Each structure stands twice: as structure tokens, then as C-alpha cells.
């Protein structure tokens, strides 16, 4: 099965670690994978032949250039830091941003990753295929024609990434566990894959040994493909028991070693995607693409609640929640009643959908129930409402940007009861420029990839205050934040790539505002996780979207720190309590 099995040599070249002795073959053109057979028509066959036939639904995959875990040379040595970006009269050095404001004791200087985006080695050690292994091969899905078959190969190179975290002073890593590595067929009655359990066990131990807090997410969008084929994945009621079974296996395996857990990453975005291509081509009978996001939301809440119940019954030490996404921004036109109402719709549909059930009322936001009949949004029973409440120990938000919110430009009334309106049912939109003179909300996004992402530090404190007022918490994590540098993909030389000015300014301005949130607004912020430690496979944008604080050379798999990595390192070294700083 594996053609190349070479012993990896590790050398330090200008601080950058070269990890593969021979370049892998170039990424093949994306295969135009076949669509899935209709939901329910694939028989359950938990044998090796059944595993192979599931992989046949995906098509051929690229084998990794190495298949053993690489040990880093310790201590990891960084290249010398960059010179100051600007004169100090124009912008302070990272250490000099509000030098008298410190971060609270125990603050997490984190980075975040996700299994599909960084691991590679997709068919190694018994892993089953996932919905994204399949989706990335569907015609027209990937903007750059890439797959995540190899990506950062963190599956074998995680020790290098952890060593690099140590040398940057990072003290926490939020990663995700791939369900299909633990249960290749996903289902509760299917066999557990010991190699998958062992992998994450070793990975967790290595983090602990190196002084990096491991933070684990159970589900970061990579549904076992088997479950999509058997019953439509998160659109079928069986998903709840299958997810809880997987969660219990993982809890039992890593109990006490991982103490901060997430059930779901950005469930709102995950569920929204089930209604669009290519996921809407494999819907179960009786669910159409308009209903799909909300039916998914119902099962995600139930799966989350049941997993948290198991977590507590098992006496798991530590804390658990999910990673919400998005923001509550100010109204675009300050005095427009339509825009003020649009903010409420945004808060309900984008955040309240998963936060009201868990943090406040136990139920869906009223605006959602007024808009969506039960055929779209299944209603919770009084028993379910009681069970939902209080099933999170802290609040986590992936807060990348905080723009303005506006009503549909033809007015709210034209949308709220009008299923043919393009913005129905949310009936709100975010605005990238102001309502007075049309100035941008902030430094602009990469037009070739994440076109939604502007750098908007001015609204960051407002947004955190909104979250705290609506879903009060004793502990908040920014579970992801980061920036996709415009045109970075077009830069070909290291000195151009590593000078990531907009990303550096993004992180420094957000962190300065975070200090003010903590000290002036009383926000209980206890951690911020930069997305991401290294460039990776950004869903349908593939490698066009650059989010890394390190550059990934796809030929050598070398990671090279960009300016933003040093800025983060210097900021936190100056602002963390001394006993929270991990140093080699
Ligand atoms: C910061 O702290 C230093 C030393 O404690 C003090 O001299 C200085 O006035 C403080 N600056 C501000 C802005 O509070
Ligand atoms: C799936 O969604 C796409 C838009 O993402 C749409 O063009 C297509 O018609 C939909 N297909 C089905 C089967 O609903
Ligand atoms: C989806 O089903 C609902 C409920 O039957 C129906 O009201 C709606 O028009 C359907 N939407 C589409 C796109 O077929
Ligand atoms: C909104 O209304 C208030 C009070 O009428 C006024 O002072 C303010 O200038 C208005 N703001 C905008 C942006 O129109
Ligand atoms: C939408 O329909 C509801 C229920 O019929 C009604 O109360 C509300 O006024 C309507 N809203 C608009 C803007 O037409
Ligand atoms: C419903 O939305 C469609 C599409 O935007 C629009 O043409 C129509 O006028 C709206 N209907 C009402 C009653 O506002
Ligand atoms: C990536 O590595 C290859 C092979 O060593 C090298 O030729 C290329 O210049 C590197 N790319 C960058 C941007 O450094
Ligand atoms: C770090 O030091 C502070 C203040 O001295 C103390 O309150 C806190 O418990 C210490 N934290 C750890 C993790 O040791």
C-alpha cells in the first residue's frame, strides 16, 4: 500500500526544520470523485473489505512521503527575530502595548488546528474516510484543486509543531480528534480502531511532557463518511447515539490528561454547509436543502447535551463547551430600527441558535421559532429544554471579525415572512463598509479566498460586551482568531512571505483591545487561540487561503515562522504572568 518508507533525517537550516529527505510527488490533479449513492443504500460492512469499499466512494488518495513519527532536534531554535516593523513613535513594539496591563494568571496563549486541515495521512493506520475526504474531490469544490491528503502531515510531524510552540512561548494547543480514526465506520456497534486511540494518546502525552496544555475538540466537521452513507450523518436521529458512544470512548481514554474539551467546532457553519454543494447532494429522504441546516442544528444540540451529560456522569476532571462562531456587531445605520432588529436576527440565527439552549433559556431563540415552522426547526420538548440548560462550563467563540450588521436593503418587512427572499430566513447581512461615506470596516480581506474577513479591532470590545450581556459566563476563550493575508499565496520568496504585516497588525491590535476588555470592561477572558500554528488546508479554499503564523513549504514540509509568530511570542512574553510562560 505504501510505496515510500524512508527514515526521516532532521536538520536545522536557518532555524527551519527540513523534515522530508526527498520531495513527495506533486499533488495530483483533483480526481473528479463520484457522488455518493443515495442515503441508506450502502450496507453496513465492518470488515476490511467494507472499509476499502467506503474508501472507494472517495477515490484514490495520495500516500504520505513518510509514515513514522519524526522526533525534533531539541531545543528547537528559532531564526533571529525580525527588526522593528515601524518607528516606535508610529507603533509600539509588541512588548510595549499597554505595558502596565497584564493578563490574568492562568491565561492561555494558544494556537488552534483541526484534524482535517493539518493531519494528512488520511488513509493511514486504519482511519475511515470522512465527509471532507469525499467533498474535496467533488467537481468544482476546491478553489485550487488541492486535497488535504498530505497538507502539514501533522499526523507524523506533531512533535515538530509542539517543539515550535515551546520555542514561541505558546502554552496551549487546541487540536481536534478525527472521529473516523477512532471509529473508522463511525457507528456505536462498529469496531474501535486501537491505532487511532494510540495516536492521540501519544500526541497528548507529548504535549504534557513539553509543557503545552492539550485542548481537544471531538468534532471539527469531519463526519465519518460511513454515517453519511448509512443515514445522512447529522441529518439522521441515529447520529446522537453514535456521537455519544464515540465521545465516551475518547473521554475514557484521555481522562485526566485533557482537561479542556470542546464537543463541536462552529456547529452553525457546519450545519449551514449541509444545505449547500456538495453536501446537499447526499441528503436523506424527507430533508431538503433549506431545512437541512436547522434539522442538523437540532441533532447537534442533542448530541452536545448527551455528550456533556456523559462527561459529568463519568466524573471527567475539567471543563467542556462548544466552540461558537461569529459576532454581534453594531447596527450599520445607527438609528435605523430595521438595522437594530437585524442585529437581533443575527444574534439569534448565528449565535443564539447554539447559545440560548445551553447558556440561557434552554430553547431556540424566539426569533427563530417565529420565523421557522417545526418542519424546518424541530421543537424541543419541556424535558429537552430542562436537559439543555447549563450544559457548558465556559463560553468559547471563534471571533475572527466584528463588522456592522444591516437589514436587507429592500427592508426587513420584505424578508421576514417571505420564503422566496434571498436572505430568508436570517434576514440580515453583514456590511464591509460604513453607511456614511462607504469607508471599509478595516484592512481588507484576500480577494482570492476568505473574502468575509476584514481586520476590525475597533469593534472587538463591543462584540465581547454583547456576548457577555447576552450569554453571561465566568470564563471566556477566544477559541480561534486570525487573519488571511491578502495575496500571500502569490508571494514566492521567503522574505516576502514571512513579512505578514496585516496579520501582525491584526494580532497586535486585537490583543491590545483584549487587554482593555479584561481591565476596563470586566470581560472574563482567559485564553486566546491563534488560527493557526502553520498554513493548512482551508476547506474549499485549499492552500490559497493563508492563515498560518508559520509558512508551510509543501515540498519539504518545512515550517518557517512569519513576523506574526514573533509578535505574538513577544506580546505574550511581556503580558503573561511569569509562571504561565513556557520556556524551553
Ligand atoms: C507603568 O508602570 C511604571 C512602573 O511601575 C510607572 O512608572 C508608569 O507610570 C506606569 N505607566 C502608566 C501609563 O500607568
Ligand atoms: C445544492 O446547492 C447548490 C448551491 O450551493 C445549488 O446550486 C444546487 O442546486 C443544490 N442542489 C441540490 C440537489 O439541492
Ligand atoms: C423544503 O421543504 C419545506 C417543507 O416541506 C418547504 O416548505 C420548502 O419549500 C422546501 N424547500 C425547497 C428548497 O424545496
Ligand atoms: C442618531 O440619533 C441621535 C438622536 O436623535 C443623534 O444624536 C445621532 O446623531 C444619530 N446618529 C446617526 C448616525 O444618525
Ligand atoms: C410576519 O408574520 C407574523 C405572523 O403572521 C406577523 O405577526 C408579522 O407581523 C409579520 N411580519 C411582517 C414584517 O410582515
Ligand atoms: C419576497 O421576496 C421577493 C424576492 O426578493 C420579492 O420579489 C417580493 O417582492 C417579496 N414579497 C413581498 C411580499 O415583499
Ligand atoms: C520550498 O522548498 C523547495 C525545495 O527545497 C525550494 O526550492 C523552495 O524555494 C522553497 N520555497 C520557499 C518559498 O522557500
Ligand atoms: C501564578 O502566580 C500567581 C500569583 O503569584 C498565583 O496566584 C497563581 O496561582 C500562579 N499560577 C500557577 C499556575 O501556578
From TrEMBL:
Signal peptide: 1-15
Region Disordered, annotated ranges: 16-36
Single annotated GO MF: beta-glucosidase activity
Keywords recorded for this protein, A-Z: Hydrolase, Signal
GO annotation, biological process: carbohydrate metabolic process
Family: Belongs to the glycosyl hydrolase 1 family.
UniProt protein name: Glycoside hydrolase family 1 protein
Native organism: Neolentinus lepideus HHB14362 ss-1
